[in-house]
Amino acid sequence: MKIKSEFLPYLLILPAFAYLMFFVGYPLAQALYLAFTQNGAFSLATVRRAISDYYFWTALKYTLGLAAIIVPTQVILALVLALVMNKSFKGRDLSIYALVIPLTISDVAAGLIWYSMLSPYGFLNKLLMNIGILDNPIYFFGYQFRHMEFLAIVLAELWRATAIVFVIILAGLQMISNEYLEAAEVFGATYWIKLRRIVIPLLKPSIQSALIIRTLFAMQVFGIVWILAGRDIPILAGEGFYQLTEIKDYGVASIYALVIAGLSILLGALYIKFMKAEYLEVKR
Amino acid sequence: MNDETKYMLKQLAFYTFIFVVVAWIVVPLIVATLYAFAAPKDYYDPNKVIPLHFTAKYVKTILIHLGAWEAIKNSVVVALLTIAISFTLGIPAGYAIAKFIFPAKDTIKLSIVALRMFPIPVMAIPLVILYIRLNLIDTRLGVALAHTAMALPFVVLITSSIFAGVATELEEAGMVFGLTRLGSFLKITLPLALPGLAAAAMFTFVMSWNEVFVASVLTLSHRTLPAQILSIMAGSSGGAAPDYYKFAAAFIMTLPAMLFVFFARKYLITMWGISLK
């Protein structure tokens, strides 16, 4: 049998597309069913049970708070690093290799690595005490120190996930044609003017996509928080995990999954809207 | 101050900055590795910043008695299954997007990008019910199927850019000389795309290797490495795990990733579109 070639691309895409649709659609439908029904009838009992829990709002607050602190810091840090690494200097390749190492390190491992830096007998405390800067160790872990746990999570996340932002921005930076910069130089532009008027505007799409990727993944943050703070710092994915594995409350766990999915769709939609606006500007 | 000293100072500041940045990434890795093998009495000695006595005891305990070795085997099986399934499904789709022009192509591409953003790992929670029904719960295949859903958008997008890099003319020439479309794909495009596909496969491997949420939710006795480590180390339940076990666990998890960066660093970087000068 000969397949008409105009259908061929669709047939090639269909298996992958159907697979993805199933793995998004089925859990979504199941989650909605678990969250909004009881004994086969529509009910808000599960929702009420979820949102009356102190941990629900705290988890929402901490998840958004972590993202709000970590993501912008990462973008600024990565932008500075990318600008520096885009110059040519001795040891540049080696420095780039070092910077991308965290790309392959899991969040669980990153949490444990930073535990070895920050624990009471960890590297940082012992170093600072031996130099004489500190008399007593700084405690980062334990419920009574949860502000410091928050800081430890921020540090570990900055260490682990700035690499992906760096890679995206550096790739964007390398696509900027040198001719623009040379033209600006001819007209006597300083480094700062070139940066503000040429480089940053042309980098906008890269910065935006890095921003959204990191924001969406920040909504699902789990391993690093679970290792460093457990439930001292509640987060949405962690509470979903806890409800499922410890309480065995599938309904409430599903609500946490739905909240994360909802936040992701909302933020993703905002992102696409911004991107479209960006394209229009370029066309005009 | 003359120009020369000014230049020297600028250079000095520049290299100091590079040094600080590289140290910020590398020092925690070195510390974690040293502490993984440090004797506990050195670790708990406040005057020894760098341990001097070493032991492999705790790495061994974690590997053998706490199930990490079994978990490593599970991780490898899951990751290989994920690569096999996601490439079987993803390569045809990537090829179609790269080599055909058809209506709705942009919509399809955009929806794949959107699916990549969807929090598929978290969706493992409602998936549990289906898995119990299908007897997939606590199986390596079950985790691999969910990991495939997570990796597939990436595989489709990356393979399409790999295939787009192979000249269509070569394939057309093959067809002129009597190969079928499938034949010319298998004999011409696929071999030329192989290095890129290998890099994509390695990256898929790392994605699955590092994933913890799905694996923790869907398995109990067939845990992958991150899930196993999480269950014995996590702050809330296993907070009692002594520090030196935590460091040993960190080392076991990080080593394969480091080896990966070492062997695949060139591919890894070009895959994201960075060129080294």
Give an overview in words.
The complex is a heterodimer of chains A (284) and B (277). Chain A has a two-stranded antiparallel sheet. Chain A has 284 residues and is an all-alpha fold. Chain A has a single domain (25-171, 205-283), classed as MetI-like (MetI-like fold), CATH 1.10.3720. Helix content of chain A is 77%, strand content 1%. With 277 residues, chain B is mostly helical. Chain B has 12 helices and no strands. Chain B has helices at 3-36, 40-43, 57-64, 68-99, 105-117, 124-133, 140-164, 168-176, 181-210, 213-218, 225-233, 243-271. In chain B, helix 3 crosses helix 12, helix 8 (168-176) packs antiparallel against helix 9 (181-210) and helix 11 (225-233) runs antiparallel to helix 12 (243-271). Chain B is globular, with a radius of gyration of 24 Å. Chains A and B meet through helix 1, helix 4, helix 5, helix 6 and helix 7 of A and helix 1, helix 4, helix 5, helix 6 and helix 7 of B.
Level-1 CATH class name of the domain at 67-241 in chain B: Mainly Alpha
Strand content of chain A: under 5%
By DSSP (H or I, 4+ residues per run), the number of helices of chain A equals: 12
How much is the average pLDDT of chain A? 88
Instruction: Compute the average pLDDT of chain B.
Output: 87
Give the radius of gyration of chain A: 24 Å
Architecture per CATH nomenclature, i.e. the level-2 architecture of chain A: Orthogonal Bundle
